[in-house]
Amino acid sequence: MAVKIKAEDCVGCGACEDVCPQDA
After folding, report:
1. How far apart, in whole angstroms, are the C-alpha atoms of residue 2 and residue 24?
2. DSSP secondary structure, 1-24, as one string
3. Alpha carbons 24 and 4: distance in angstroms, whole number
4. How far apart are CA 17 and CA 9, in angstroms?
5. CA distances from 22 to 7, 9, 10, 18 (A)
6. What is d(CA 19, CA 1) in angstroms, rounded to the nearest whole number?
7. pLDDT in tens, 1-24
8. What integer pLDDT is reported at residue 4 of this predicted model?
9. Distance between CA atoms of 21 and 13, rounded to whole angstroms?
10. Which residues does 16 contact at the CB level (< 8 Å), separation at least 6?
């Protein structure tokens, strides 16, 4: 919970929990 990352910053789901609410 340091900095909010954008989906563009994160490639794929999992790298960023902020952009990926559902953990696969």
Report:
1. 22
2. --SPPPTTTS-SSSS-TTT--S--
3. 20
4. 12
5. 14, 18, 15, 10
6. 12
7. 456 666 666 666 665 666 565 554
8. 65
9. 9
10. 5, 7, 9, 10
Q: Per the structure block, which two tokens stand in for 12?
A: 């794929």
Q: Please report the pLDDT score of residue 24 as a whole number.
A: 45
- Token look-up 């490639």 returns 11
pLDDT of residue 17: 61
For the whole model, what pTM was predicted? 0.15
Q: How long, in residues, is the chain? A: 24
Q: Using alpha carbons only, what angle is made at residue 21 by residues 6 and 4, rounded to the nearest 5 degrees?
A: 30
Which residue's entry shows tokens 């919970």? 1
